[in-house]
Design brief:
The chain is mainly alpha-helical. Helix content is 82%, strand content 0%. It contains 2 helices and no strands.
Length: 88
């Protein structure tokens, strides 16, 4: 009977050690998840900013095209810093 009790105690000790290891592993996973969530948030903000920038650029292009169609002053007068190349 004593041998059986000793075996159980050893088994319980092993289980406790395993539980401690598992808890540490879970803690690491939770920290990783938090880091990943922060990273995802940053990427989502970056994507939103890029989409806004693209929309602004499209509006600018549309405005330039409309002013060309309406016979506005030459683009070089409106945007003197712009460089236009023509094919020869």
């Amino acid at each position: 009977m004593k041998k059986t009790i000793v075996k159980w105690e050893k088994s319980i000790d092993k289980m406790e050690k395993t539980i401690v290891k598992l808890k540490k592993s879970v803690d690491k996973m939770e920290k990783t998840i938090v880091k990943l969530k922060k990273s995802v948030d940053k990427w989502e903000k970056l994507i939103d900013n890029c989409e806004k920038s693209i929309e602004k650029s499209r509006k600018s292009i549309d405005n330039i095209l409309v002013s060309i169609d309406l016979g506005s002053p030459a683009i070089s007068d409106t945007y003197p810093s712009a460089v236009f190349r023509t094919k020869k």
